[in-house]
């Protein structure tokens, strides 16, 4: 029997900065999920909530859950459960701040949607166990991000480091 991975995505727009962008974002996420390199396992079920908020809200979430009072571009929270009867399940909440993403894209001379695509891929890799605390893990994750972005026709974001 061929197992098909189950990935359920929900989109929540909690800021006026995002509302006009949601249609395009949904297409970006669908395209990313078609690529197998993000590490989603066929034996797991994934429930992804992509939540698009403003800078003030992400700063509040960052303070409450990470004890950091600064703004950030994205926050990822994952809860995984091993259900012996069914598949392993991962419930993921990913918060994005339009203001920070826009500011970073402008600073680095990157298209807003290309930068957002990179961040989504980065989050999906984190959901699937990829980390970047040590240099060898960082290089592995970075190379995988570049490969996925290339498959989507997006230039290497690390070219100008």
In short:
The protein has 161 residues and is α/β, with parallel strands linked by helices. Helices cover 42% and strands 23% of the residues. Strands 1-2-4-3 form a four-stranded mixed beta sheet.
Description:
The chain has a single domain, classed as 3-Layer(aba) Sandwich (Collagenase (Catalytic Domain)), CATH 3.40.390. Helices cover 42% and strands 23% of the residues. The protein has five helices and four strands; from the N terminus they run βαβαββααα. Strands 1-2-4-3 form a four-stranded mixed beta sheet. β1, α1 and β2 form a beta-alpha-beta unit. The mean pLDDT is 90.
Fill in the keyword field for this structure:
Collagenase (Catalytic Domain); alpha/beta; 161 residues; four-stranded mixed beta sheet; 4 strands; 5 helices
- Summarize the main sheet: 4 strands, mixed
Number of strands: 4
Q: Regions with pLDDT < 50 over 5+ consecutive residues? A: none
Overall CATH architecture: 3-Layer(aba) Sandwich
Shape: globular
Give the domain tally: 1
Strand order of the largest sheet: 1-2-4-3
The first-to-last residue Cα distance is: 46 Å
Helix content: 40-55%
Q: For the record, what is the CATH homologous superfamily label? A: Metalloproteases ("zincins"), catalytic domain
What is the CATH third-level topology name?
Answer: Collagenase (Catalytic Domain)
């Amino acid at each position: 029997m061929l197992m098909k991975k189950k990935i359920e995505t929900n989109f929540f727009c909690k800021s006026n900065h995002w509302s006009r962008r949601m249609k395009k974002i949904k297409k970006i996420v669908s395209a990313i999920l078609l690529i197998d390199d993000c590490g989603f396992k066929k034996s797991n079920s994934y429930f992804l909530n992509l939540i698009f908020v403003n800078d003030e809200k992400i700063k509040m979430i960052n303070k409450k859950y990470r004890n950091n009072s600064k703004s950030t571009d994205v926050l990822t929270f994952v809860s995984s459960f091993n259900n012996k009867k069914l598949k392993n399940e991962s419930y993921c909440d990913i918060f994005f701040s339009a203001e920070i993403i826009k500011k970073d894209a402008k600073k680095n001379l990157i298209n807003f949607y290309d930068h957002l695509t990179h961040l989504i891929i980065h989050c999906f890799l984190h959901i699937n166990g990829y980390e970047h605390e040590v240099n060898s893990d960082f290089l592995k994750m970075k190379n995988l991000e570049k490969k996925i972005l290339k498959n989507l026709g997006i230039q290497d974001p690390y070219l100008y480091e």
